[in-house]
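Sample intake sheet
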Amino acid sequence: MSLSHVLDDPVINELLDSVTSRYALLGKVTGELSLIAASKLFRQELGFKSGSELIVSRYGMAIYRALSNSLQQQQGWTGHVKVNEQWLHLQMLALGEFGVLQENETTHPQLPHTAPAINTVKQNHNATDKTDTKTPTSVLLNVDDKGRIKKLSPALEEFLGQSSKQLENLDAANLVFRTDVGHFKRLLDQVKYQTGSTEGSFRLRNTSNDVVYFDWTAACIGADILLIGRSSNIHLEEALLKSEERINNILESMDDAFFAIDMNGYVNYLNEKGAELLGKASPLLLGRMVWERAPHLKKTPLFKYVNQAKSSMQPETFQWQDPANEMWYQVKAYPSDELISIFFTDISAIKRNESRMRYQATHDSLTGLPNRLALSQTLQELLGNDQVQDFKMGLLFIDLDGFKAVNDTLGHDRGDDLLIAVSKRLRSVVRSSDIVARLSGDEFVITLPYITDQETAFNVGRKVVDAVSKKPFELGEKKIYVGASVGVALFPTDAADVEGLLKHADIAMYQAKQAGKNTVRVFHANMSASLQTKVDLENDLHDAILHNRIELHYQPRFNSNGSICSVEALARMRSLTGELIPPAEFIPIAEETGLIIPMGEQVMHKACKWLIDTNKKLKQPISVSVNVSGIQLLDGKLCSTVEKVLKLTGLPANLLELELTETVLMQNQDAVLQDLNRLHELGVFLSIDDFGTGYSSLATLHKMPVQTIKLDRSFVSNLPNKADSVILSRTVLAMARALGLGVVAEGVETAEQRDFLIESGVLELQGFGLARPMTADDSRQFVWAQQITSEKAKKILA
């Protein structure tokens, strides 16, 4: 703990300000225990401010050592001492490297044997007159060549409280103050066996732990050494000066800037950093009015708080930014009777870190735009401003169209580049007073405060759509087009709070998506009802997947001789009330929310399990086809899902067929080709569903490891009566034969369609005219019943 931190402690400040109790702050200065600061009452009695000598002269060496040893071990200490015929109770509380000492008067203590030693010290309050009746003016000490005592003068015996006989042959170093023993030894060495004399200074201590400075003259007489000492006050004054110098060194070595002024504002002391802060050299500041020498500070909070400390005589702690260099300081002003000491701790790095953390907390790390938190705070301020009458604000909720495809095909790094580029375009179409924020992913919000009407917000929405969609984005070597669906809500017409405004703008954006994307929709009340229906259906879908309420119906597929060769698994969702919900309602929601992934795995597992159970009673096993969404195909986990399902159910891979959407295959060839090849290697059959609607090329089909194409029902519905349908269907069949692909005709409704397709070479047929989708149990019974003889099979087709 540093000195400035200790002085900053309000409890310490309160103790040092006491005028009724004696408190002192102790600490090690250059290795010696020193009195650093004292309470007002204590200072009045001591007459000086600091120094190790002050502790020794007041309490004696034994107490000094006890305090020093305890503080070195960072432990407290309690003891008693007699000063000027008055018993004192001392208690020190350790604060790291520093100690707070309290002195209280007490009666004669009744102490147990284990208590600290009691010392008696004669205290003279006149610090400059240390030589009293018990302090001799001159003394004589006679020692042998090893420093052992031979004789003392009567004056020295009286001072020490012991006779020459008692101390004979004792090492004289035991009489010397501990830090001066080296001086004593050197003095003996210099004069030993020499004919001349030498001089030096060291202190003696007596049995009462009085310490007195002596100037010594030493001379060698035969084998003995004679030392003549004269007591001196000069050394005490030097010690005080040294103590003050130590304090000055501490202040100079501090990282803090510091200066002290008197009650009229004149500078009494400052360290080098304090002079730098005030902007002038120390000689130009000492003894001068600080507010005149640094007039720019008078206009800052520093002037106010320093004067508050002066008026209240209470410490002031505050943060202050220096207008000269914009550095931040933690300032602590400590008033006393005569001075105000002001410490400046540089906290600029902390402030910069705080500013950076605030920015990170309120801004998107990728685009640098305000994030959801900053947007919410700004909207709260805008909507809560009662000073502006008839305040209107537009809010645009923006979602990019086609962003996921960019991420899936080009990677997330290119997706990030796209988001950065979009954010720049959005900023280009709004005013400087408008806010563009990124909520998450590819969702952005624009606030339009102080607009006149809804049309203004709508027009800005159109500008957003044009800015995003009209020009391509250059991502590396590729040029990418994306769109923007924009929802508009108006305050206070559509909502009077932040949450409602965002919600309604989001609803309008969803309607823009439903309307074909890359357009603008303005919120109106009816939108909430339709969205609520969607939300309810989404929640129901979550529950259906979780509680296994997705059931499968199966529609048989026949070969040209009328036998069932396969079935198509079709997902159905039953509501909580027992009604079947059409796939056209819940499949788009499953794809939009990503629920198609767990639902698809569940459907595949049920279909494979159903087929295993069904094939047990069949002489000729059939296969099952399962529809795969484009979301599943692009997810990258389809292969591992298929492998897991086949392993769990035990179904041979060649009995599973995956129906893939033609459009997804054609638009994402490079992204999915590796997974398709891996599925093909597993032995799974692959087919293109709704063929003819996705503009497949022969070159693309040739690359794809598919075995079958399913002719879209739009080609079949007008057969055989419409000439162009006949031409198209025969062209597709010819192409499939050339590529070695099998063909399945979907949507066969009539006998004419069936006969024409069989005659044209179609090997497999499927449609309501042959068999409708049935529940799992009904379809299994149907398959078992139909696969008996070829004669009965022919009757089915007849």
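Comment: The first strand starts at residue 22 and ends at 29. Residues 562 and 793 are 5 Å apart (CA to CA).
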